[in-house]
Design a protein that fits this description.
Number of strands: 17
Oligomer: single chain
Strand order of the largest sheet: 4-12-11-10-7-5-6
Number of helices: 12
Structural class: alpha/beta
CATH architecture of the largest domain: 3-Layer(aba) Sandwich
Largest sheet: 7 strands, mixed
CATH topology of the largest domain: Aspartate Aminotransferase, domain 2
Length: 388
């Protein structure tokens, strides 16, 4: 008997047959402008030719080698990462997903400090494994899965006073997204991140920055936390770093890394040769095509186009938040029906928080794509208003 999928993900009613760049096609050959991009993982575009070429080349050699063995593909990957990582984060470990990487970050904080409490934030999202659920705020994800391995305290995001009051010597770490993605596309303020760094230093907690969705150029900086000029103890990266291929990594300072030992963590597929080849190619693309600058410029242009639609449709939308090519339009109702309407008109988007329409387009969108996206949104708003 043919098995069915567990009902964890609501199906979109669309069967994808092909993808290229910023577009996907259905079985009937209809093209869609993709601002969903696999939760943002394909920030470099679907099937970027340099990523595909690197994977093919590595496949012709070998695809399974554990980190116990040295390889040229690993050496190249580490050399290239050295060109884009914050200089103080000089030790890394490769994994397969953002959740896995956040889990390792939490393990490291607990191991080094000997403490079990974590400070996280209202509307945070760090994954759905048992440990990362413990620092993910949304009750709908957490319900029925406690107790969690960590005792988490959630304080308001961008609220320095709340952090000053809550954080003390009992905490192993603070974990924070520079821009809350799942929580509604909420950028942090530089003052907030700087206050986190200062307070962590005062009480001996580690500062973990979750760059799974924000990192690798999407916000106009290679790493979004660099806008605030802070130096996290641990940085978590994923999604875009492999050009859409499943890979993540944790980067730590030497001070942190020297306190870890053999056997503290491991992964069968973490750092596999295909993933390392994809990361190397992705970094080369990031550098050669100056992706952060493109994200800043195109994000600004797209945001301006969407603001015009918002101003024309105040009964549907109440605000827009953006950081580079990470954009959210806050609606006056749940966005589900509107997302389905957009899909029917050829634009793929998804939800953030309770009321936010989320766009995570790739860096290679064109002026034509921006015009088309705004026009689809405008047409959908007109039809949606009529339906309402």
């Amino acid at each position: 008997m043919r098995p069915s999928l567990l009902p964890f993900i609501q199906q979109r009613g669309l069967k994808i047959s092909r993808a290229e760049g910023q577009y996907v096609w259905d079985q009937e050959g209809r093209r869609y402008l993709d601002f969903y991009m696999g939760y943002g993982a394909a920030f470099l575009g679907h099937r970027h030719p340099k990523i595909v070429e690197a994977l093919k080349e590595q496949l012709s050699k070998f695809m399974t080698v554990t980190p116990a063995f040295e390889t040229d593909v690993r050496e190249k990957c580490l050399d290239l990462l050295g060109e884009i990582l914050p200089v103080h984060l000089d030790m890394v470990y490769f994994l397969n997903s953002g959740s896995e990487a956040n889990e390792l970050a939490l393990k490291i904080a607990r191991k080094i400090t000997g403490r079990k409490k974590i400070l996280a934030f209202i509307n945070s999202f760090h994954g759905r494994t048992l440990a990362t659920l413990g620092v993910t705020w949304n009750p709908k994800y957490r319900e029925g899965f406690d107790p969690f391995p960590y005792e988490a305290t959630f304080t308001p995001y961008n609220n320095v006073e709340a952090v000053e009051k809550a954080l003390n010597e009992e905490y192993a770490a603070v974990i924070v997204e520079p821009v809350q993605g799942e929580g509604g596309i909420i950028p942090s303020t530089p003052e907030f991140l700087k206050a986190l760094e200062r307070k962590c230093r005062e009480c001996g907690a580690l500062l973990i920055v979750d760059e799974v969705q924000t990192g690798f150029g999407r916000t106009g900086y290679i790493w979004a936390h660099q806008k605030a000029g802070i130096r996290p103890d641990i940085m978590v990266a994923g999604k875009a770093v492999g050009g859409g291929f499943p890979v993540s990594f944790v980067a730590v300072s030497g001070e942190v890394g020297e306190n870890l030992k053999e056997g503290d963590h491991g992964s069968t597929y973490g750092g596999n040769p295909l993933a390392l080849a994809a990361v190397s190619a992705a970094v080369e693309v990031l550098i050669s095509e100056n992706i952060p600058a493109q994200a800043m410029e195109k994000g600004s242009a797209l945001s301006e186009a969407l603001k015009t639609v918002l101003e024309e449709n105040g009964k549907i939308f109440r605000g827009l938040r953006s950081e580079g090519l990470m954009i959210g339009m806050d609606m006056r109702s749940t966005p589900g029906p509107f997302i389905r309407l957009l899909q029917s008109k050829g634009l793929l988007a998804f939800k953030a928080g309770l009321t936010v329409l989320r766009f995570l387009p790739p860096y290679l969108i064109t002026e034509r794509d921006i015009v088309d996206a705004a026009e689809i949104l405008r047409n959908a708003a007109s039809e949606y208003e009529v339906r309402a």
